[in-house]
Specification:
The protein contains 4 helices and 2 strands. The longest helix is centred in the middle third of the chain and has 8 residues.
Length: 82
C-alpha cells in the first residue's frame, strides 16, 4: 500500500462568503478551517469527532454528530482536484 502525508498542504486558498464556499488544500484540518472562517460568520459543519484533515474526510466520506442537520462530506464538497 501507499501512504501519503499531506499535512504540509494545509493552506486555506480562498474564501467566498457570498457564495458560501472556499478552496483548501487536502491537509487543512477542520479546526483550522473553522478558525479561518470565524470572522466571516461561516462554519464548516462536518464534525467526525476528531481534528481530521479535510482530504482524509473527503476520502472516507466522513460524517459525524452534525450529519443529520448539515449532511456529510458528500453534501458539503462541491469538487475535488488531484
Amino acid at each position: 500500500g501507499v501512504c501519503l502525508d499531506l499535512s504540509e498542504m494545509n493552506a486555506v486558498l480562498e474564501v467566498n462568503p457570498e457564495d458560501l464556499d472556499c478552496r483548501v488544500q487536502a491537509g487543512t484540518t477542520r479546526k483550522s478551517l473553522n478558525d479561518h472562517l470565524r470572522d466571516t460568520g461561516l462554519t464548516f459543519p462536518v464534525d467526525p469527532g476528531a481534528d481530521a484533515s479535510l482530504g482524509g474526510m473527503a476520502a472516507c466520506g466522513a460524517s459525524g454528530t452534525t450529519a443529520v442537520k448539515y449532511g456529510t462530506m458528500r453534501e458539503n464538497c462541491l469538487g475535488l482536484t488531484a
